[in-house]
Amino acid sequence: MGVGAAALVLGTGLLSGCVMGRVYRDEPLDEQKIAAIARGVTTKQEILSEFGPPQEIEGRELVAIGGPIEAFLTRRGERAPVERVVAARFFRYTYARANFQAVILLLFNYGEFDQKTDNLVIFFDGDNRVEDYAFAKRTDQLPRYGFLSR
Amino acid sequence: MAVVLVVSGCTVGRYYRGAPLRADPGAVQEGESTRHDVLHLFGPPDRILQNASGDTFIYEYERENYSSFRLQDPILRFTWFTYSRSLGQRDRLVVVFDLSGVVRGVAVDQHTEELPVL
Fold first, then answer.
1. Which strand (E) or helix (H) includes residue A109?
2. Are A97 and A79 in contact (CB under 8 A)?
3. How many independent structural domains does chain B possess?
4. Domain range spanning residue B68?
5. Would you state the pLDDT for residue A7?
6. Nearest to A86 among B9, B40, B99 (CB)
7. How many CA atoms lie within 13 A of B30 on its CB side?
């Protein structure tokens, strides 16, 4: 038996199998549409019609509704919250991908799981226009074959 | 001889979630930087918390290294001994804003580079 054949037998004996997996969640975000977002101009309705329903909505606008809540305050000197608009209201759109791969040998196993998400967050002002937004494309950083392409 | 009759196996695993911070947290100045600056530097935060006094942005990158060693009877498949270890670390940046969107606090933890290989 030659050295090559011996290596082949040894290799096939040791290499029990490989596992590869891919996870895709939601739809890729259209970067041309993102580039068209204009601060102070684009409206919330336009965002909804272009991008569809967001994965996350933060719509809380009030610290507390006005009302006779003093009776529920338990600590002396505690004051009732004042009704006011707080912080930002935002939409979040995401597209997540994950790559999984494993090498299963007789005596040694190695596996990797890597998850990256494209993330678009859009803040709106009190007039329901885009106040600010940020986009990060991270799925293109996923190594295709794990440690082999990292 | 007994050692030869026992099959030993090692497993090494790597888990990555998120992406490293894409800018230097030192660039964020309390009382000067705005929400727009932070979004421009670091992109969309992984989490946004709303408090009565303003927003808090949280950026996270998480890694975990797993390794195990196992001794097993090759015929009966009985496992004589297993040792496993999982080490997780994360990079975290927390930026606190006031209601006008100006940075009022910054905290950063970067530990993923400290993860031992095994």
1. strand A108-124
2. no
3. 1
4. 2-114
5. 61
6. B99
7. 7
Which residues sit opposite B70 in a β-bridge? B9, B82
pLDDT digits (tens, 9 = 90+) for B50-87: 877 888 999 999 999 999 998 888 788 788 888 999 99
User: How close, in Å, is residue B53 to chain A by CA atoms?
Assistant: 8
Distance CA A24, CA A96 (A): 6
Tally C-beta pairs within 8 A across A and B. Answer: 89
| H or E stretch at A7 | helix A3-14
Q: Of B9, B18, B39, which is closest to A107 when you measure between CB atoms?
A: B9
| Interface TM-score (ipTM) > 0.95 | no
Contacts of A7 (CB under 8 A, 6+ apart): none
CA distance A51 to A12: 50
Q: Which two tokens stand for residue B38?
A: 């932070």
The residue in chain A having the minimum alpha-carbon distance to the alpha carbon of residue B41 is A134
Name the burial class of residue B50, with classes exposed (0-12), middle (13-18) and buried (19+) by CB atoms within 10 angstroms of its CB. middle
The total number of residues shown for chain A amounts to 150
Between CA B61 and CA B72, with CA B116 as vertex, the angle to 5 degrees is 115
Nearest chain A CA: its distance from B102 CA (Å): 11
Model confidence at A27: pLDDT above 50: yes
pTM here? 0.76
What would the pLDDT profile of A57-76 be if each residue is shown by its tens digit? Answer: 876 554 444 555 555 555 55
| A108/B9 Cβ within 8 A | yes
